TrEMBL record:
Residues 446-559 form the GH3 C-terminal domain. Residues 356-431 form the GH3 middle domain. It holds the Pfam family GH3_C. This is Jasmonic acid-amido synthetase JAR1 isoform X2. Belongs to the IAA-amido conjugating enzyme family.
Length: 583
């Protein structure tokens, strides 16, 4: 019996790369049929719920009836139902089976997290995405038995009024037994013990993640985190604490800055005096020029760096490439707190060009054509199915999943870049609701990023960089104006920053913005320089609300309802510059 159990466990933990790819190829060859089967399965499981019964499906599961009867919704429409579930209502409200776990969205966009249901089917989808992505990645960048330096952090979990476990989506994944089993099967177990990942203080957890990476430096084959921001943040921190880390390794004693007893105990089992390793790290760090190529110097057997690098993460790529040297940056897969969408099956593409092949069996997908008007995504544009999208066109994603979200507007705009067999390959464009707009102007997150990049070019000669940035539409001014917040790596002259401010204003090339600025229907852009560490305060604020560092995204446009973030930004302004570009 014991031998049989060992054989079963060995079969379970063996990762068959070619089998996973073969299954993916089969799934995507007949995307239309798989989509119909997936919708049928979702509706058969959940057709008797309070939410679906009201729309008169009467047991029908075909796509046309579903689209005719069930309305397209946003989170606001479903929030009362989800709240009842969180409050302990056990009746079948959104799903046939009871929901036992709630995921929290990052909350960095609207200022407060959203509740979304999390269940076993979503966990299975997550593991399918992870395995598929790894199979394609490992075919191009094969790794052996090693470890991953993963900058992952769990948020505080709590119980809802109804007794359900609630935490960020990443926390729900990390705490699931399947996660660790899958990581081990894929030869990328985390360097750090659970006590570090689930520690209550992310500053202490980050310090110990770095220390664990150094202890296992020759075994590290992948450096990763959920988002590129977390990796950049980790190595910015390394620049500040590397000498303390060297002392810990030399003496075999953990720094007093780590005070959590469970973390200290776990680290004491790993940390032994190693003067030779300490000397190696000290010499490597001392020889580096401005920390260029830091990651491969510290972890010589690293094959690649992995994390989500699209959308709001793109501004961090320049710094990440600086730390990475010649190492490849591989963008992770496409999903959200609500569920997964697609997988990166072309890992050799640089992050700026990465596409995601939709997995047709993890949900039912619809696409609202944009037609060049981001604000015009009303129902005049009828959604099309997965196999009806057109190459080169932009759409907003609507999806239906196994966790109680039906015809749900995800709020993401994507572009169809190609097809993998019968499923589309999507490129993320922007969030549909992240718009800078006052009059007839419409500037997206991407427009803001391009403007910041253009204006920041003049800083390079002074060896300065924009550490982070965000924006705000000040409609209390008359006329309303754009306000851009920058945190810089050092001091710049007033003349230089005034030029940057003017360049920012000119770099928003949207016709509505330019014409409005010329007639003063939109006021002069303001560039506000904030004190060093301001964006770290925003991160601390987010974590203090129960968020996980792994899930943090700097909000690129701070809305008027996000008063706490506006307060942090406003109270840390060091200098303000007003554009004279259209005078």
């Amino acid at each position: 019996m014991k031998i049989m159990k060992m054989v079963v466990e060995k079969i379970e933990t063996k990762f068959d790369q070619e089998k996973v790819i073969e299954e993916f190829e089969d799934l995507t060859k007949d995307g239309g049929r798989i989509q119909e089967e997936t919708l049928k399965k979702i509706l058969e499981q959940n057709g008797g719920t309070e939410y679906l019964e009201q729309w008169g499906l009467n047991g029908r599961t075909d796509p046309q009836t579903f689209k005719n009867c069930v309305p397209i919704v946003t989170h606001n429409d479903l929030e009362p139902y989800i709240q009842r579930i969180a409050d302990g209502d056990l009746s079948p409200i959104l799903t046939g089976k009871p929901v036992e776990t709630i995921s929290l969205s990052s909350g960095t966009t609207q200022g407060k997290p959203k509740f979304v249901p999390f269940n076993d089917e979503l966990m299975e989808s997550t593991m399918q995405i992870f395995k598929t992505s790894f199979a394609f990645r490992n075919r191009e960048f094969p790794i052996g038995n090693g470890k991953a330096l993963q900058f992952i952090y769990s948020s505080k979990q709590f119980k809802t009024k109804g007794g359900l476990s609630a935490g960020t989506a990443t926390t729900n994944v990390y705490r699931n037994a399947q996660f660790k089993k899958t990581m081990k099967a894929m030869c990328t177990p985390c360097c750090s013990p659970d006590e570090v990942i689930f520690g209550p203080d992310f500053h202490q957890s980050l310090y110990c993640h770095l220390l664990c990476g150094l202890i296992f430096r020759d075994e590290v084959q992948v450096v990763s985190s959920t988002f590129a921001h977390s990796i950049v943040h980790a190595f910015r921190t390394f620049e500040q604490v590397w000498e303390a880390l060297v002392v810990d390794i030399r003496e075999g004693v953990l720094s007093s800055r780590v005070t959590v007893p469970s973390i200290r105990l776990a680290m004491s089992k790993l940390l032994k005096p190693d003067p030779e390793l300490a000397d190696t790290i000290y010499k490597k760090c001392s020889r580096l020029s401005n920390w260029y190529g830091l990651i491969p110097e510290l972890f010589p057997n690293t094959r690649y760096i992995y994390g989500i690098m699209t959308g709001s993460m793109e501004p961090y790529l320049k710094k990440l490439r600086h730390y990475a040297g010649e190492l490849s940056l591989l963008s992770a897969d496409y999903g959200s707190s609500e569920g997964w969408v697609g997988v990166n099956v072309n890992p050799k593409l640089p992050p700026e060009l990465v596409t995601y092949a939709v997995l047709p069996n993890i949900g039912y997908f619809e696409f609202i054509p944009i037609g060049g008007n981001l604000n015009g995504m009303e129902q005049a544009n009828s959604p099309v199915g997965l196999t009806e999208v057109k190459l080169g066109e932009e759409y907003e994603i609507v999806f239906t999943n196994f966790a109680g979200l039906y015809r749900y507007r995800l709020g993401d705009v994507v572009k169809i870049k190609g097809f993998h067999n019968g499923t589309p390959e999507l490129q993320f464009v922007c969030r549909s609701n992240l718009l800078l707009s006052i009059n007839i102007d419409k500037n997206t997150e991407k427009d803001l990023q391009l403007a910041v990049e253009a204006a920041a070019k003049s800083l390079v000669d002074e060896k300065l960089e924009v550490v982070d940035f965000t924006s705000h539409v000040n409609v209390s001014a008359d006329p309303g104006r754009y306000v851009i917040f920058w945190e810089l790596s050092g001091e710049a002259t007033d003349e230089m920053l005034q030029d940057c401010c003017n360049c920012l204003d000119r770099s928003f090339i949207d016709a509505g913005y330019v014409s409005s600025r010329k007639v003063n229907a939109i006021g002069a852009l303001e560039l506000r320089i904030v004190k060093r560490g301001t964006f770290h305060k925003i991160l601390d604020h987010f974590v203090g609300l129960g968020g996980a560092v792994s899930q943090f995204k700097t909000p690129r446009c701070v809305g008027p309802k996000n008063s706490s973030l506006l307060q942090i930004l406003s109270s840390n302004v060091a200098e303000t510059y007003v554009s004279s570009a259209f005078c």
